[in-house]
Amino acid sequence: MSVEVEVNENDLAEMVEQVWESYLDPEGINPLIPTYDENQPSEVHSSVSISGSWTGHIVYACSIEAARRAAAAFLAMEPDEVSQEDLSDVLGELANIVGGNVKAMLPPGAFLSLPQVVLAPESTARFPNTERISGVYGIWDGEPVSISMWHSRADNNQEDGA
Amino acid sequence: MTLSQPEFAFVSTLVRKEASIVLAPGKEYLVEARLIPVARAVGAANVNEFLAELQRRPNPAHQRKIIDALTTNETSWFRDREPFAALTDVILPELIKSRATTRKVRFWSGASSSGQEAYSLAITLQEALPSGWNYEIVGTDISTEMVKRAETAEYSQVEVNRGLPASQLVQYFERAGAHWRVTSQLRKNVSFKLMNLTAPLPAMQPFDVIFMRNVLIYFDVATKRTVLQNVAKLLRPDGWLFLGAAETTIGIDDNYERVAAGRTSAYRVRTGVPAGASRRG
Amino acid sequence: MRAMVIDDSRAMRMILKRIVTKLNFDAVEAGDGQEALDLLADMPEVPELALIDWNMPNMNGLEFVTNVRADPRLREMTLVMVTTESEQSQIVRALAAGAHEYVIKPFTEGAMIEKLALLGLVPTGANS
Ligand SMILES: C[S@@+](CC[C@H](N)C(=O)[O-])C[C@H]1O[C@@H](n2cnc3c(N)ncnc32)[C@H](O)[C@@H]1O
Q1: Boundaries of each CheR-type methyltransferase domain copy (chain B) (predicted)?
Q2: Which pTM value belongs to this model?
Q3: Interface contact B162-C101, CB threshold 8 A
Q4: ipTM surpassing 0.85, yes or no?
């Protein structure tokens, strides 16, 4: 039995906006400006998997420069002070926060995995047997950033999350 | 590409005329930042073009949007806490005695923004009034968008984080998708209306308590005085007015006196003062 | 005053630490509930405040809260969950287990300070 998932583009966009307001752009001067370009390039990405009542992934993908700026904003440091570890931590936490909020909108009994960070383009890591059900694509400070939600088609493809 | 002097003057005149809000010079950057999304939404190439078009051809809907964008809607649950504590500790016990025959209290949240103040009042009353009592809360604001939001009573995760104790979040809200919605138990006692405080106020039943916080700060002294005089007519003789932490009636309207209310202060209309009292009928 | 920041994300620990340090807390970090309990066992003075993530390896935040509540020595600690878990039922569970407050991620710095003010943990005037 497939479950109707009630997370649409608007919901995702709103969560993304809240992440910006909270951590990446507290002054409200540097929003993520939508491009609606599903194929925009990325250089790094992070993801969390959801299993249980719904199976799929939430992916945060962006350029290295955007990741560096996100880490700098998150950790209150200068972009050139950001280490590789800072960058990975922050990318992971961004996927975790969006994923956690998406999970809350799914039917009860969904579980969130710990985040995975890959310092390679999102295109290198297409999730098998999944389809994109919504996504927010945009430019932040001139750099590409996207957050997308992927649903696993077959339930036996369930990942070992949690 | 910041606003030119004439463009800034055009915008500040508009918001002063329509909302009595004074934009200090030097706020050009802020004004532009707030207008970028408005310009984008109406399909203008940029703020300059949007304003040029509006000057050529006045458009009330677009003017409304500018006012909405430039009014600060900043608010939170139980903002400043003390006024709400004063209600519970001091004012409601008194009203429970003085209104024992009608068992009903009426509150006004003037400048209710997205509704947090009005619903915080509802939670306070819900918890403090004995059973069998009724309450009615009216929220008003000049912004159509804010009134709509307040009526919808749905708040984002970030909004419910702000000042709302978790125990009350789970008791008085329910999840609605990505949002939290105020339960119908509270919503049925709260209504919202569009209202410009600086225009003549519509006839309303007088209120026992008026919260009019963080809105007078945007007006000049003459406007503050007019608003305070009009508000006095809508306050019951033994009612209470709460202003924002940076606001006062002192030196503006002597018909009010400042009184202690718990750990904060509130304002009451002086007894024996004809203004308001006589016209209240 | 002392605060313990318990989260498996180093980035999140840094954010939380920055906020409580601003409020004049000395911050101690732990990467999961077990590590936090171990640290607490060795601390001569119990911290006034713990900010606790829910989903962590080894011991999650809810188990940590349950453990703290069962230990009379830790009775005075104020426990605040700081998590992406935002179902109503989860909040109810955490409060029932003994958490005093609950902050949903993402949170702004202002929101976190307001929550701590609710708990009487922000000295007046420190509200920047
Ligand atoms: C800063 S908010 C205050 C909200 C709430 N009272 C509080 O203290 O949290 C100010 C509100 O005043 C409203 N406002 C500004 N000018 C107004 C006017 N002339 N008449 C009525 N409302 C006005 C704005 O739309 C905004 O929602």
Answers
A1: 1-272
A2: 0.86
A3: no
A4: yes
